[in-house]
Amino acid sequence: MSFVGDAIGSVVGGITGAKQAGKAAEKAGRTQAAAAQAGIDEQRRQFDALVALMTPYVTAGTGAIGEQQALIGLEGPEAQRAAMAGFEQSPLFQSITQQGESAILQNASATGGLRGGNVQAALAQFRPQVLNSLIEQQYGRLGGLSTLGQAAAAGQGAQGMESASNIGNLLANQGAATAGGQIARGNVARQTFGDLLAIGGAAASAGAFGGGGGGAPTGGGGIKFANF
Questions:
Q1: Residue 191 lies in a domain
Q2: 128-to-134, 140, 186 alpha-carbon distances in Å
Q3: In this structure, is residue 215 part of a structural domain?
Q4: Cα angle 8, 3, 19; round to 5
Q5: Of 123, 141, 60, 78, residue with least CA distance to 86
Q6: Is the dihedral of CA 157, 158, 163, 165 positive or negative?
Q7: Predicted model pTM
Q8: More confident residue, 46 or 23
Q9: CA 50, CA 1: separation in Å to the nearest integer?
Q10: CA end-to-end distance (rounded Å), the chain
Q11: Strand, coil or helix: what is 112?
């Protein structure tokens, strides 16, 4: 084979190899982008699962805060009166006051002071004392629920920020992988164009050195270019 023929063969081989390398790079980019997308989907799935687990605690805490605000009057006087009435009408309050008042009356009856002023004063003070005690206990219980809800909400927020950061990194990786594949494909096109120019130059040189005015070769002996 002539020097020119060797040169053309080398260029054609380079085009084929570059095309294969470009396809491999583009395929690798798609694989990396798909892996990044899988990571994004898993991050979102895990966050949604966490939200589902924490939602009952956040809901309970939100409701508890509302009840606390009603008890101390932050929701207005009507809401406060309704909260107090709810305690007074509760089975627990009714049971405690009935048992306590019965005990006071029984004790007064046993000591002969059933109609004394001290008994009447004790009866008058007993219900408000029980109501105040129950309200304080309930407020403390609601405080525990509101604290629990606050912790759950804070956990959701922290996990959300972490997931957003991770997803952002994965999106950046996905973009880089996709762009890398596209750049590789572009490089192949650029190199192929340059190599085709080189083949054309080699062919022109072959015609020049062939001399004799024979013109360009025709028929089956001509140089054929494949589509790449």
A1: yes
A2: 10, 18, 85
A3: no
A4: 20
A5: 78
A6: positive
A7: 0.54
A8: 46
A9: 71
A10: 24
A11: coil
Query: Which amino acid makes up residue 147?
Result: T
Under a CB-based contact definition with an 8 Å cutoff, are residues 28 and 183 in contact? no
How many domains does one find in the chain?
1
Q: Is the dihedral of CA 212, 215, 218, 222 positive or negative?
A: positive
Enclosing domain of residue 84: 3-204
Report if residue 225 sits inside a domain: no
Q: Which of 4, 9, 1 is nearest to 204 (CA)?
A: 4
**Residue 185 exposed, middle or buried by CB count within 10 Å (0-12, 13-18, 19+):** middle
Cβ(169)–Cβ(28) below 8 Å: no
Give the other-Cβ count within 10 Å of 25's Cβ. Answer: 18
For position 66, what pLDDT does the model report?
92
pLDDT band at 205 (very low <50, low <70, confident <90, very high): low
Whether 220 is covered by a domain: the verdict is no
Cα(78)–Cα(89) distance, integer angstroms = 16
Question: And the tokens for 108?
Answer: 């007064």
CA distance 184 to 27: 10
Nearest-angstrom CA–CA distance, 167 and 155:
18
pLDDT digits (tens, 9 = 90+) for 133-179: 999 999 999 999 899 888 888 888 888 888 888 888 888 777 777 77
Tokens 């509760």 correspond to: 90
Q: Greater confidence, 180 or 72?
A: 72
